[in-house]
Amino acid sequence: MNYTIQSKSDLSAGAMLVVTFPEEELDRKALETIQFDPPGFLVPFRHRSVNGQVECTYQLGSRTKLQYRFGSRSPRDYVAFWEQVLQPLLDCGDWFLTPYSFVMDPQYLFVDRQGGEVSYLYIPSKEPCSDYGTLCSLVAELSRRNGVTDPALENKVLRAIMQDFRPKEFLGMLRQAMRDAPAPQPAAPAPAPAP
C-alpha cells in the first residue's frame, strides 16, 4: 500500500498528521466503525476525499510521541508498557479492524500526557500498510529503546522476540513473570534520630 504521512500544525487545532492514500483502497466498514465507536487506542481523525485520494487528518491533541518516554522501567511498568503497545493489536478485531492497518513505526506511536495510554495511527484501507515483519521490527526497536531493571525479565523478553514472536503469547509470558515475581518488600523504617 502506498501512503504518505505529513506533519501539519495550525493555531486552532494544534499538531496534526495527514495521511494520504488512494480512494479505491478505502475500507468503508472500518471507517464507519471508527467514526461510530472510536476505540481509545487510536488517534482520532477526520477524513475527506481529494482528487481520488483519501486524506485522513489525525488530531494529536494532548498526545505526545511515545519515543519521548523511552527509557528503563521497573518490571511492573515494563509489563504495563508492553500491554499498552500490544493489546490494541489483539483487541482491534472487536471493531472490525485489522492490526496490519496500524502504522507500526515507533515515531508514530503516541501516548496521552495524562494517563499514559498508547495510541496508534490507523489507516482505514483495504490494503495493509504493515505486515508481520514490520510488527517484529517495531517490537525489536521498542525493546532496544526500553529497558527493564530486572535482567532476568529482559532476557526473557529478548528470547521471546528473537524466537517466533507472537503478541498474545508474549503478553502471557510477561503476565506470568509478574505473577511469579516475589512481592516487593517494604523499605525498612529509618532509625529514630538520637536525642
Key features of this structure:
7 strands; 3-stranded antiparallel β-sheet; 4-stranded antiparallel β-sheet; 34% helix; 2 domains; alpha+beta; globular; single chain; 195 residues; 5 helices; Phosphorylase Kinase, domain 1
Shape: globular
- Stretches where pLDDT is under 50 for at least 5 consecutive residues are none
Strand order of the largest sheet: 1-2-4-3
Mean pLDDT: 90
Rounded to an integer, what's the Rg over CA atoms? 20 Å
Total separate domains: 2
Kindly report how far apart the N and C termini lie: 75 Å
In this structure, how is the largest beta sheet organized? 4 strands, antiparallel
Estimated structural class: alpha+beta
Query: What is the count of DSSP helices, taking H or I runs of 4+ residues?
Result: 5
Report the β-strand fraction as a percent range. 15-25%
Q: Strand tally, please? A: 7
- What order do the SSEs take from the amino end to the carboxyl end, as H and E? EEHEEEHEEHHH
The share of residues in helices is 25-40%
Chain-wise SSE layout:
Layout: E1 4-10, E2 14-22, H1 28-36, E3 45-50, E4 53-59, E5 63-65, H2 75-91, E6 110-112, E7 118-119, H3 132-145, H4 151-162, H5 167-180
Antiparallel strand pairs: 1-2, 2-4, 3-4, 5-6, 6-7
